[in-house]
Design a protein that fits this description.
By secondary structure, this protein is mainly α. The chain has helices at residues 3-14, 33-48, 51-59, 67-93, 103-114, 117-141, 146-170, 176-200, 202-207, 212-227, 235-238. The structure holds fe (ii) ion (2 copies).
């Protein structure tokens, strides 16, 4: 997709009303609610805090980006803000409280501030993988209803975000060595983040009957999918594994 297509994608998404019934927790088994509310509150915090990068991108000169990419990145941040609003409604509906801060969120923020813009975008890509996998796992166990549909919608957005950030890296014009370094960094950061999330949310996973192995498989599947945007050997692109950079 061209960056102008991504911009249109996010502009269209912005027109959507908030999904209905996300605050109605009656359909969720009572025993699940405290753990689920706690997990969603942590994710709510993560969704809410990505504002800085949209301004940094205005000053950045990077290969493969243009005004449409910059506009799309701002719309993407707004879409994450929308996720935060939806998750906030869910948390309150489940009888939970929103958090001011949490150690995993602080870790992510710390990591992002420490790093250069491209590595920050890698950390954002990790967040897409973690969010996409986690929301998908929760939705797979929730009974039919507003909460499940709301999480499915967010999960679908995260899938698009993953492709959007993946395309950014694919267009950096990097050679084999940089790609290999990127892959090494990507797998290290992503696996570390997966470990943190599995530990932090183990109670929710256990309560909802989601085995750690299933959760790990879902995470690794998305980590691999994100990695496929930047194969070490670009000739793979010619075979159609990844859309050619434009
Ligand atoms: Fe999100
Ligand atoms: Fe996202």
């Amino acid at each position: 997709m061209r960056w102008s297509d991504w911009r249109k994608h996010f502009e269209m998404n912005r027109q959507r009303p908030l999904p209905e019934g996300v605050e109605r927790a009656e359909e969720v088994p009572e025993a699940w609610r405290p753990a689920l509310a706690g997990s969603l509150a942590t994710f709510q915090l993560g969704e809410a805090g990505e504002g800085r990068i949209a301004h940094e991108i205005d000053r950045a000169h990077l290969p493969g980006i243009d005004a449409d990419y910059r506009a799309a990145l701002k719309l993407f941040v707004a879409e994450e803000g929308r996720h935060a609003r939806i998750l906030g409604l869910m948390v309150r509906g489940l009888g939970g409280k929103l958090l001011a801060r949490n150690w995993t969120e602080r870790l992510f923020v710390f990591g992002r501030r420490l790093l250069g813009l491209r590595l920050k975008l890698m950390v954002l890509l990790v967040a897409e993988v973690i969010g996409g996998a986690f929301y998908g796992l929760l939705a797979s166990r929730l009974p039919e209803g507003g909460l499940r549909r709301g999480l499915e919608q967010i999960c679908e957005d995260e899938q698009h975000h993953l492709d959007y950030h993946g395309e950014f890296f694919a267009r950096q014009g990097w050679g084999v060595l940089t790609r290999a370094a990127w892959q090494a960094a990507w797998w290290s950061v992503a696996m570390a983040a997966m470990g943190v999330v599995l530990v932090d949310h183990r109670r929710t996973l256990r309560t909802m009957g989601i085995p750690l192995t299933e959760a790990a498989r879902a995470f690794v599947g998305l980590v691999r999918e994100a990695a496929s945007h930047l194969p070490v050997f670009p000739e793979r692109e010619a075979r159609g594994a990844v859309p050619a950079p434009r």
